[in-house]
Amino acid sequence: MFVARLSLAVAAILLLATGCSSSRTAKVAVKDHKDRKKAPEFALKDANGQTVHLSDYRGKVVLLDFWATWCGPCKIEIPWFQEFERQHKDKGFAVIGVAMDEEGWDVVKPFAKYIGINYRLVIGDDTIATLYGGVDAMPTTFLIDREGRIASVHVGLSGKRDFEDEIQALLRDSSTSVSAGLVRAK
Question: What is the C-alpha to C-alpha distance for residues 127 and 138, in angstroms, rounded to an integer?
Answer without folding.
Answer: 16
